[in-house]
């Protein structure tokens, strides 16, 4: 099993055809086909089925694909570490980040990082589990700054706590349920959640308090879409308090104070267990931690107020 076999398999999976794979790797269609045939001969498995719609992966290929992605990503990270140690670091640093952390600390962390690594570019994903968890698993991103994912086995990840934050219910200004003081007052409204349907997020609070579930629950993979819909409807959502501090003032939103306690959650650095961070990624985490401490000590009144909504665990 050779590296060019793995690259050919990943390229065919991503592009959906031999021609697309060849174009993405700057190779000929014949060389991609040869790599796939060699791979099939070596494994004694059929990996690609040619159809009129392109190239389809067999079940065997789909089983091998995550391993191929991890191997390719690890080799890429190793080369990046070599370049960093030589002082010639370039390329990309990819990670996911929860929105309020991005808004509060990311600019300062990036400025610090670029002072040392000016030739490294960023690929940043909003820290929605459906977006970032698969990328963390296959090594496409180096780490996540966000919640510990409840649907990933503990043996798969390492988690370094950064802070603990509470959550609140959010609505537009003038919402008909804004004066509600209990979850029971809000059951007739639709909820928008920035989580996955298979991860119930904060809604067990209704179960724990022996209340019916809300009228309807919708799942959205973008906080900006949630904010837009909240502003223009009677839907509700559940935000971490730092995000409420950030968004409410500028986006015509308000928090609804209910007597029931919504669980706090830890925010931290999520990495793959057994896969140490590279030199550049580790340095970026250091820059982020420094930015958080600087915000606590010297930040604006707005950012200091934001930090009052969290408990630092660093």
From TrEMBL:
The keyword Ribosomal protein does not apply. Residues 1-58 form the HTH lysR-type domain. GO terms for cellular component: cytosol. InterPro entries: HTH-type_LysR_regulators, LysR_HTH_N, LysR_subst-bd, WH-like_DNA-bd_sf, WH_DNA-bd_sf. One of its GO terms (molecular function) is DNA binding. It holds the Pfam family HTH_1. SUPFAM superfamilies: Periplasmic binding protein-like II (SSF53850), Winged helix' DNA-binding domain (SSF46785). Keywords: DNA-binding, Transcription, Transcription regulation. Gene3D superfamilies: 3.40.190.290, Periplasmic binding protein-like II, Winged helix-like DNA-binding domain superfamily/Winged helix DNA-binding domain. PANTHER family: HTH-TYPE TRANSCRIPTIONAL REGULATOR YBHD, LYSR FAMILY TRANSCRIPTIONAL REGULATOR. Belongs to the LysR transcriptional regulatory family. This is LysR family transcriptional regulator.
